[in-house]
Amino acid sequence: MFLFLATGSPIMARITFPIISFILFLATITLFVVSIWYLFKKIDAYKKSEKHLEKERTRPTTYKDIKNFAKYYHLTPEQTKILWEVCYITKCHNFAYLLKDINQVYDLFKKAFEMEFSVNTPPEKLNSFFCLLYKIENIASFDDTLKTTKALKIGSVVFYLNAKGEQFPFYVVKNTEDFFVLEIPEFLYNSEKRPKILERQRFIYKNSEGTDFNFCARINRYEQSSNTQCFIIVAHTDKIISTVQRHYRRQFIDKDVKFFAIKINENSKKDDDMYIYSNKEYSAHLSNISAGGCCINAQLPVKELQHIGLDLWELGISEKVVGIIRQTRRLPEGGFALHIQFTKISLESKNKLYMRIYGYDQLETLAN
């Protein structure tokens, strides 16, 4: 038992006792707060430690992880179900960390395709599988977006966009701390259409996931090598805007195709006889394709909003694919680029295109 002795009157003794109690209470509270602060610091340090990060990276993906991911990125219930199935059958590690490397995502989906989706999968489900993969590509692309032209890789293509909307492909041949160098076509170097020096010009960089990176940069000067190669030296910029322009992943391709005119049958009562196909075919060159459309180079200036039919036998598509021309663009080297959106194509044919674009058609077992 402690006796608190107070000198003086009884009144002073009663005053002294609450003061000492308050000091003890305050000390206890302070010690508690400091202990909590120290504990949280230790927990925070552990969460940032390599040991904890490695544990998080290597732990199995849970259904709760997928639900949280789906909620954050607005996946549909069908996409959520397929993503969980992909992670479950492959027994993949934490998907949130896997997403940081798009090549690991490709390997994951390819493994799931071989294990589960390549045989006897309904076309609707297989189509949802590929749509989900493309959406995840876009998510990963925006997480690892191009923030500065200093990140442009040697050999990548940058499109110069002039005032008329014409696009000219330039190739990155050098990238330094102060500037980057683009090789330009010789015909453009000798043309009045070439971009003006000491002015900011508009460029577009397009990645394979369908994201466009728009930026304006100042051209410092032109250079020409002894073997007639033409170059422009461009100042760096970090003012870059990224947008997803496509709903499907596309593949640049080099194939000859046939196309033919189509008329809409106004008296059709079902989809099978909605189109009237012409027997006369025209040759064209296929430059890129996706499950939703393609671009062909042709000598005919076909009008926009006109329907045409496509023969894609070279790509393993047996049906007649129908599309509508969304844009007709004159090419600098002659001819026209016809940008086509498919309006009549089966899910089976879409899935075949998906498999070709993602390289799944080279697997030993293909989807039926």
Structure characterization notes:
The chain is built from nine helices and 13 strands. Helix 4 (77-90) packs across helix 6. It has 368 residues and is α+β, with helices and mostly antiparallel strands. The model is unreliable at 1-6 and 364-368 (pLDDT under 50). It starts with 9 loop residues before the first helix and ends in an 11-residue tail after the last helix.
Features:
single chain; flat; six-stranded antiparallel β-barrel; alpha+beta; six-stranded antiparallel barrel; disordered C terminus; 9 helices; 368 residues; disordered N terminus
Find the count of extended strands (DSSP E, 2+ residues).
Answer: 13
Number of helices: 9
Instruction: Summarize the helix and strand pattern as letters.
Output: HHHHHHHEEEHEEEEEEEEEEH
Task: Report the principal-axis shape.
Answer: flat
Radius of gyration, rounded?
A: 31 Å
- β-strand percent reads 25-35%
How are the strands of the biggest sheet laid out side by side?
A: 1-2-3-6-5-4
How far the N terminus sits from the C terminus, by CA atoms, comes to 88 Å
Largest sheet: 6 strands, antiparallel, barrel
Please mark out the parts with pLDDT under 50 across 5 or more consecutive residues, or reply none.
Answer: 1-6, 364-368
- The chain-level mean pLDDT equals 83
Q: What structural category arises from helix and sheet content?
A: alpha+beta
* Share of residues in helices: 25-40%
